[in-house]
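dumping this here before i forget
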Amino acid sequence: MKIPNLKIGEYEVELPIIQGGMGVGISLHGLASAVANTGGIGVIAGAAIGFLKEDFKKNTHEANMEMLKQEIAKARAKMTSGSLGVNIMVALTDYEILVKAALEAGVDIIFSGAGLPLTLPKLKQLYPQSKTALVPIISSPRAATILCKKWLRMDYLPDAFVLEGPKAGGHLGYSLEQLKSGKVNVQRLLLETLDAIAPFEAEFGKKIPVIVGGGVYTGEDISRMLNLGASGVQMATRFVTTEECDASIKFKQEYIRARKQDIVFIKSPVGLPGRAIKNRFLELVEKGEKTPFKCPYHCIKTCIPKTAPYCISMALINAQKGNLENGFAFAGENAYRATKITTVRDVISELVQMILQHK
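structure:
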């Protein structure tokens, strides 16, 4: 028995596993290259990536652009197989700057969510020789239909979709009411999305793979999605507690510390619900305490600093560095299942064995 390959645009990888992009320094070149070298797709997250540079506060957008290019180059230098992607959120104020940087760097795939990436094909047209595949991240079949129709006006069909379900970590594409109801079922959404894109595939003779993310944690989960018609899966939380993950050891230990009841929904300052690990910082926020700050970055279009209880970028930068007293860790629903620090290769080996058992 063989695990199916995953083909996105011109790129084909041995394993149908994409490491989800985790912003503000959780997935950089270290994690992305390690996942790629196992035969999957590693992903560098673009959000606030420039915080690693000294001039980040003064020249935020330039620092983000330069660091994204540097991280892509570092990942390439360590890669021996697989493919490399970047995750760039539509909601970022420097979205177009980062997309252009990724295209100039010749990254294999751009994954783009946190809003509909309506202009992505037009940006790629600025680089006629580019072979970069374009993959929107969506939360509904309706979004898939809208993007197919809009992109066709630019003579482009998505090279794939990532369908991110309600069990994902970080900012989520659902209302808090939908999330708390538990009625949103990613398996049903997958079948509906496959139906929604089928007419476009038939008319233009192009396969549009659908990759499922959010709550995918085991090989059994992967097999279930593949058997339902998904072409692959996106996994982020599972890779946090690896040696290669680019976050600090204290950040990783938050996952190991977490119990099931510690995985909670939060109201992010950017106006979206999110899922994170409850800690003292979030408890104080919940009580209405506000952390005074001057907005140094204006990183997210929807953030209103005057009314925000804290700066989301500063909180996540603190967490990445291990300062959890002044920040918190985003995490998927299954984060509490982590019990130790392992390696990417060991995680992939375990997943592959279980996939084969459940084929």
